[in-house]
Amino acid sequence: MTAMNAHANDLATADALAPIFKASGDPLRLEILRVLRRDTFGVLELSQMFDMRQSGMSHHLKVMHKAGLLEPQREGNAIFYRRPLHLDSDTLTDQTIRQIFETVDRLPLARHLQDKIDAIRRQRAEQSQAFFARHAEQFREQQELIAAFELYAEPTAELIRRRAERQPWQSALEIGPGEGGFLPVLSELFEQVVALDNSRDMLAKATRTCIEARLDNVDLIEGVTDTLLARGDAFDLVVANMVLHHVPSPADIFLDAAALMNNGGCFVVSDLCSHDQNWVKENCGDLWLGFEPEELTRWAAEADLVAGERLFIGLRNGFQIQVREFWKAPMPA
């Protein structure tokens, strides 16, 4: 390489790095990166969080997006922002962005910002609970607008059965059991099963399912994962069937699942891949329009879970379901 070519490459690298350092050279933008460590927030939510006009927040987000520090995620008619999913290359720009993230993540999040994040999550949770309170009797019909229960329940059950044959598992937790359709599978495979739901109406339907199917080893609990963490519960398997798109902070479910699992335990998730069918928000109570597989993998990695088998199920109505497993070390051979 000639000296002139080397100099040209150096300039090209500098030109690529300059926007990254410029975009991150602002205390407010660093705080935005902090709050987006695991969560995804809309422009309006971020504006409220930082007490600024939406136009001002949009400007900051645009600069950060152009520099590669953030990427937009369309959720129906709203634009949300998250950290980039793909920073896997060894290019200097990706290395620089990863280093910025690692640095800001060492800083403690200000208490007032955490309080505002908690308030947004509560608001999302209340929105979801209100939907299920209104539509508890039509739950199955609402869900089957997207996918029939059997389409994702049977592959998920088969995956768990294959794993349970080789693992000395005894206890299982299902987060968000809905009407309890998956509980007979877990009741058959495990000595102890806990079903956790924050909707009293849905828990009542799951209770009826347990009574009719005589599932004597299922304990139904009204609450959230914090409820079980406070009790010190631990499980060999945690299952979340078509639940993540209803929860305020899907990334936190991975952290909580990891904390609730014994070593060698497994977290099995079935959920929608990203889609653009906004009608599900109103008709099915969805908070999120599915997820990129890389999102689940990243959230799992941040919870020290290792990705295992994956299965993708295409549906005729344009939706796609992903069934994923994530292990808490040590993983089985």
Automatic annotation (TrEMBL):
SMART domains in the cross-refs: HTH_ARSR (SM00418)
Gene3D superfamilies per record: Vaccinia Virus protein VP39 (3.40.50.150), Winged helix-like DNA-binding domain superfamily/Winged helix DNA-binding domain (1.10.10.10)
GO molecular function, one term: DNA-binding transcription factor activity
Signal peptide: none
Domain HTH arsR-type: residue ranges: 9-104
CDD domains per the UniProt record, alphabetical: AdoMet_MTases, HTH_ARSR
Top-level taxon of origin: Bacteria
PANTHER family: TRANS-ACONITATE 2-METHYLTRANSFERASE-RELATED (PTHR43861)
Name this protein carries in UniProt: ArsR family transcriptional regulator
Species whose genome carries this gene: Marinobacter lutaoensis
